[in-house]
Hints:
By secondary structure, this protein is α/β, with parallel strands linked by helices. It is built from 13 helices and 21 strands. The strands form 5 sheets. Strands 8-7-17-18-19-16-20 form a 7-stranded mixed beta sheet. The chain has a 5-stranded parallel beta sheet with strand order 10-2-1-14-21, with helices on one face. α1 runs parallel beside α13 and α3 packs across α4. The N terminus and C terminus are likely disordered.
Amino acid sequence: MTLTRRGFLSASAGLAAVPALCAGAFAASAPRQADIVVIGAGAAGIAAARRILAANRKVIVVEATGQVGGRCLTDSATFDVPFDRGARWLHNPETNPVTRLARMAGLDVSPVPLGQKIRIGRRFARAGETEEFLAALVRANRAIDDASRGKTDVRTDVSCASVMPRDLGDWAGTTEFTLGANATGKDLRDISVIDKARAQERNAAVACRQGLGVVIAKLAEQVPVAFSTPASRISWNGRDVTVETPGGNIAARAAIITVSSNVLTAGGIKFTPELPKRQLDAAAKLSLGSYDRIVLQLSGNPLGLARDDVLIEQSSSTRTALLLANMAGSSLCSIDVAGSFGRDLAAQGEAAMIAFAVEWLTRMFGSEAAAAVKKSSATRWNAAPFVQGAMSAAVPGGQGSRKILTEPIGCLFLAGEATHETLWGRVDGAWESGELAAEAALRKIGALRVGEPEPAPSRAPKRRRAAPIRSALPGPRIN
């Protein structure tokens, strides 16, 4: 069941670390030539490479880190059970191509049995209080939709915060956290109403028992990937491209670049000639928000919550978090922090993050929670040099930037969740963008004719926005 048509679970960040080598991994040096070179082995990069291989063209993926997945990263080493440090769920499973591919690959994908609760101080919200929160979310969502309706010129775009109802009372802070930081990694003041309103619904959640990072690694098994091979410079024109790496240069007829919008604008990869200002400005308007997980291993279930129970609190501000308890039936609990508060907290380091999580749980459940902590870990995606954040969210006036990033630049093609106009911040959006970029690159080099059918389609049918949903939830259950 969903609390609103967007739901406060809708954007558990898109990030991830399972050290996994592909069948085509290159331990030493990568091939020096390819038809198309792909920068980045995240979901978009792997989708692009699979599409190119299906067209019987030579591809090489260069990956700066030592594993496949990008912002889909499963940690199987820190605790005795795997957990996803980044993206952990797939949404809209009936139309999500990654869900279908994961099942075809023999992985265990199943619905997440989410129980959802609100905490008010030391107690759970009563049914009437839950209804008040539901009503606040419905009103806030309606205000965003109303403000975006009829806006086709981004110059008339405004922030989500500027259109929020001013009479949400005790639920104002929780509503802002739910729709802003938790859903996009950014506060509502930093989010375009057009971008927010155009985002596709997240109407269900499924998880992979082995981990979402394992899904991407499994799908990359036949993809040739050069690990620990960051691209330092890309020289390009309208006919070919040269990618400089520490292991040598790679010559290709086209390149697909799947790095995050933050990495693109940071200048870590040099371009000769430089990328057009139009694309760089667009990437800057789609900067990544902040979303991190603080994972605690608790003995004895001191919170008294069920498997995959999700909990938020009534908060007077966005200095709060979302709890996913007893993940997949384990003793692990994830406290997710996001937006400006999460960014500032993560900047203080892992110790400060863990201290906040323990204090947050203690305030709601008592000292037994702190005493039960056996082991802990925290992600800090903003500090990850080859990611630098969570998912993209357009600033006011920036929604049109997503389409700009899909425009070919000579023989260069950009892909990744930031380039998808409706599925941004999601794994299926990244995957679909990689396929579309691959098709454009194949056409550029003459390997795919306009209108030619895909040899190995994995794209889902076009999605339609679902009607607003307002669940009648029993007791204190939410989302």
